[in-house]
């Protein structure tokens, strides 16, 4: 069994390191901004040293995040398959599952398309939205007003989401993809 104090220090340290790297800060730069020594920060990031509330507050300010975000216990949210309904109203031979989104203003969608099927045309999403398509199986075409873009298993494409489009499976095998809309 993992000691919860050790786990807390490791999670806190990992979050500090991840946020520091995300902000493109060196260990020295963050230590200076937070008002702690580089050696102490290094030990905190490795989960080898607990820190004071004062240091935690200094680190959160220096990183531009709420201290609660750095201290919260890790949370894994599980949604059973049965709780994620499948919809077939998106075209003959298509199946869509809207997955729980990890954050606001984000959609995560799983599509299955039978061979030689296509979805109904999707209306444009909000202005400035972006879509990421990742093909899990088969071949998918992204069809817009002026082009057809073919993606094969393992391919990933990003495109504006604020134009009408649809998905097509031109292949002889079922196709699957994940679609993320932000």
Features:
182 residues; alpha+beta; 434 Repressor (Amino-terminal Domain); Jelly Rolls; 2 domains; six-stranded antiparallel sheet; three-stranded antiparallel sheet; 28% helix; 27% strand; DNA-binding; TransReg_Diox_bact_type; RmlC_Cupin_sf; Transcriptional regulator
> What top-tier CATH class of the largest domain fits best?
Mainly Beta
Low-pLDDT runs of 5+ residues are none
The CATH homologous superfamily of the largest domain is named Jelly Rolls
Report the helical percentage. 25-40%
Based on helices, strands and strand pairing, what is the structural class? Answer: alpha+beta
First-residue to last-residue Cα separation: 39 Å
Q: Determine the CATH topology of the largest domain.
A: Jelly Rolls
Taken from the alpha-carbon principal axes, the silhouette is elongated
> Going across the major beta sheet, what is the strand order?
1-2-3-9-4-7
Number of strands: 9
The major pleated sheet works out as: 6 strands, antiparallel
The number of distinct helices, counting runs of at least 4 residues, comes to 5
Q: Strand-and-helix sequence, N→C?
A: HHHHHEEEEEEEEE
Mean pLDDT: 89
Strand content: 25-35%
Q: Provide the CATH architecture of the largest domain.
A: Sandwich
What is the alpha-carbon Rg in Å?
A: 22 Å
**How many domains, in number, for the residues?**
2
